[in-house]
Design a protein that fits this description.
single chain; alpha/beta; Rossmann fold; Arc Repressor Mutant, subunit A; five-stranded parallel beta sheet; 9 helices; 12 strands
Length: 232
């Protein structure tokens, strides 16, 4: 389970991270509202734990911005302001539940697991993912760009689907091997580079907006970038 914790109290962050990690969860931390919003919009999380009182953008504002683009991720609001008015404001901003400080860790863990179960049970995976005219249908396992069907082998499709589900994230060759080829170590093979070259020819050639980009020394990133931008 992937958790984003947006909290600026260092002591509380340490306690929560230690507890959730010990419970088998993967925790990312943002210390202010602006960083929290950026991480929430650019990465995939199962739940976001969001303090109301934050430096920069407060938790209510962050929650509202997240909900404009993501109405399925579970959001648990933390608040030291446990009045009915503040709780209602938090829930009306799009939070699924709230937890008043101070709290017992066991209660937090229970609420997290309940919210994530509810979120996953009530959400329908998006079947068509679109970017820069490219449409990937994860049900029919097909792809089109600007209305033109792209012929892909099974491996090319799985590589493309992995990319579109992880847009704007730098992906190492090992990550790609693990998720596309189910290989958990680098055998000295250049299969990733070979297939990325195949995929580039099919989805990027002939278009001003390129989608697959090399991040030297790190791997690859799938994002929208025009030829002029790429040359800068």
């Amino acid at each position: 389970m992937k958790v984003l914790l947006v909290e600026d109290e260092a002591g509380l962050v340490s306690v929560i991270v230690r507890g959730l990690t010990g419970a088998g969860m993967e925790v990312s931390v943002a210390a202010d509202g602006n960083m929290g919003l950026e991480m929430a919009l650019n990465h995939q999380f199962d739940i976001i734990i969001l303090d109301i009182m934050l430096p920069g953008m407060n938790g209510i504002q962050v929650c509202k911005e997240i909900r404009k683009q993501n109405d399925t991720v579970a959001i648990l609001m933390l608040t030291a302001l446990s009045s009915t008015e503040n709780i209602v404001t938090g829930l009306n901003s799009g939070a699924d539940d709230y937890l008043a400080k101070p709290f017992k860790f066991a209660e937090m863990e229970a609420r997290i697991r309940t919210l994530v179960r509810r979120s996953k049970a009530g959400s329908t995976p998006k079947s068509v993912i679109s970017i820069a005219g490219l449409e990937v249908n994860t049900v029919s396992k097909t792809a089109r760009r600007n209305g033109k069907t792209i012929s892909l082998t099974a491996t090319e499709y799985h590589l493309l689907e992995y990319f579109v589900k992880n847009q704007n994230m730098v992906l190492s060759r090992i990550q790609i091997l693990e998720n596309v080829w189910d290989i958990d170590f680098n055998m000295g093979t250049n299969v990733v580079d070979v297939y990325i070259n195949y995929l580039r020819k099919k989805i990027d050639n002939g278009y001003d907006t390129k989608l697959i980009h090399t991040v030297f020394g790190m791997g690859y990133i799938f994002k929208e970038e025009t030829v002029d931008e790429a040359s800068n």
